[in-house]
Amino acid sequence: MISKSFIPSKRPGEILVKHFWRHPIVFIKSFLMFVIIFSLPLFVYWLISNFSSSLLEHAIIYPLLVILFFSYYLFVLIFALNVWVDNYLDVWTLTNMRIISRTQLGWFNRVNSELELSKVQDVSVEQKGIFPTIFNYGNLHVQTAGTTERFLLRDVPNPIKVARLINRLYE
């Protein structure tokens, strides 16, 4: 968990304005996929027990099925942990001088990038679809004069409010 007052490579006179993460609603898609994947062995077990119950009484096949199911669940849980790490550890920090993006790409790969607020030319918000509109989240595009032309903040909660805050800070 990131400290509420942490600023990576803090500069003199730099003040933290806000940390923000992806909107929690974007995890529902991953959660539903996880529930479906998690329930597949239970469905297979139900099929075997109802249509071929003699397999469950076999001295070799039953232990193999148990080992197979536990191995499957182990991989599913590792997959779920990986999805959670990739999403939760993506954090954006807004200070009075810059926007800092820390993106987690797997367990041992992290990309840090920053953008000086003095180089901001335009901030635009993109809310596509019914869910982003209802739950008030979307993508924030920050246009710069630097080498990175567009800085993308994905699935930001209250993107219009964040865009106004960035506009106020760089003006």
What key attributes describe this structure?
single chain; 171 residues; alpha+beta; PH-domain like; four-stranded antiparallel beta sheet; 5 helices
Q: Can you walk me through this structure?
A:
By secondary structure, the protein is of the alpha+beta class. The chain has a single domain, classed as Pleckstrin-homology domain (PH domain)/Phosphotyrosine-binding domain (PTB) (PH-domain like, Roll). It has five helices and seven strands; from the N terminus they run βαααββββαββα. The protein has helices spanning 27-51, 54-57, 61-88, 130-135, 159-170; strands spanning 16-20, 91-95, 98-104, 110-116, 120-126, 137-144, 150-157. The strands form two sheets. The chain has a four-stranded antiparallel β-sheet. The radius of gyration is 23 Å and the shape is elongated. The protein starts with 15 loop residues before the first strand and ends with a helix. The model has no long low-confidence stretch (mean pLDDT 85).
